[in-house]
TrEMBL record:
It is an enzyme of class 2 (transferase). Gene3D superfamilies: 3.90.1150.220, Winged helix-like DNA-binding domain superfamily/Winged helix DNA-binding domain (1.10.10.10), Zinc/RING finger domain, C3HC4 (zinc finger) (3.30.40.10). This is Non-structural maintenance of chromosomes element 1 homolog. The lineage of its organism: Eukaryota, Fungi, Dikarya, Ascomycota, Saccharomycotina. Keywords: DNA damage, DNA recombination, DNA repair, Metal-binding, Nucleus, Transferase, Ubl conjugation pathway, Zinc, Zinc-finger. Its main location: nucleus. The keyword Nucleus applies. It is found in: Nucleus. Component of the Smc5-Smc6 complex. It catalyses: S-ubiquitinyl-[E2 ubiquitin-conjugating enzyme]-L-cysteine + [acceptor protein]-L-lysine = [E2 ubiquitin-conjugating enzyme]-L-cysteine + N(6)-ubiquitinyl-[acceptor protein]-L-lysine. One of its GO terms (biological process) is double-strand break repair via homologous recombination. It comes from [Candida] railenensis. GO terms for cellular component: nucleus; Smc5-Smc6 complex. Belongs to the NSE1 family. One of its GO terms (molecular function) is ubiquitin protein ligase activity.
């Protein structure tokens, strides 16, 4: 029996794959392809053939996504799912186990106390509210915000902020600025959009941008230089867009040509660790 005929039927393979993903902060697609191959080799050796590797079978992206789809069908009623996102700089695809409720911060993080969750929200507020769409906050300012919210000492605040970075909430740049991690942006997408709004829907109040190409949030990339235009891209998405258009005029019906550099959003990619 082929993998494609088995991936839709929930089995110990699905359960093991789900357990692995839940135990990891995030898993790259290339990593998960290898993991699924090893799981199948161990649990369902009868589906491999003599022509395949004696170590592990060959798994395609389509087969992986088929297993993920079957898992999501099982766990969606409980308010969770396995989601995938692209790294905003490298374009690498990652899979994560996330909550599907609006306030995912509260739903999926029972290891934090309510005051700690409130401090996370306040740091996110400060990151998004920074002028000029830099989407980052100095480490010292972030630590001070935690200390003010939780009434902690500087040392305690630094320890808690380090834990948040280790847990995948934030990333620390080489310039000691705190930014939202790709995992957080994926998991908190609905929360972020509801709380801060999209620039294209409300130029005066909207604070977030959606990539014209991949339709995901952009906190590292470029926006159109026309102030009233909300068109934005991740760097790799912009390269792809330009390759598809001989004259890449902005799809926002303004006069900007995307062969020029747009207005930068977020930190410089090379400062990310």
């Amino acid at each position: 029996m082929s993998y494609s005929s088995r991936m839709d039927v929930y089995s110990p393979t699905h359960i093991t794959l789900l357990t692995y993903i839940r135990s990891a902060s995030s898993c790259s697609q290339s990593q998960l392809l290898k993991v699924l191959a090893k799981i199948i080799r161990a649990i369902e050796p009868e589906v491999t053939t003599a022509s395949q590797s004696p170590v592990e079978p060959t798994i395609t992206k389509e087969v992986l996504d088929g297993y993920i789809s079957a898992i999501n069908t099982k766990v969606n009623p409980t308010g969770f799912k396995i989601a995938k996102y692209r790294d905003q700089v490298s374009g690498t695809i990652y899979y994560i186990f996330i909550s599907t409720v609006s306030d995912a911060i509260t739903k999926s993080n029972t290891s934090y106390t309510p005051p700690e969750i409130d401090s996370i929200k306040k740091v996110i507020d400060d990151i998004i509210d920074q002028d000029s769409f830099v989407y980052s906050l100095g480490y010292v300012n972030s630590s001070q915000r935690v200390g003010q919210t939780l009434n902690k000492t500087a040392r305690e605040s630094n320890m808690f902020l380090t834990k948040l970075i280790d847990d995948g909430w934030f990333e620390l740049t080489e310039e000691d600025r705190i930014v939202l991690s790709g995992r957080s942006i994926c998991e908190l997408k609905h929360y972020l959009v509801e709380r801060y709004g999209l620039y294209g829907e409300d130029v005066e109040k909207g604070k977030l941008f959606v990539c014209q190409q991949c339709k995901e949030l952009v906190t590292i990339g470029f926006k159109c230089k026309e102030n009233s235009c909300a068109v934005s891209f991740h760097a790799k998405c912009l390269d792809f867009y330009n390759r598809l258009h001989d004259s890449p005029r902005c799809p926002g019906n303004c006069n900007f040509e995307w062969t020029e550099a747009g207005r930068r959003l977020g930190v410089l990619p090379e400062t990310l660790k």
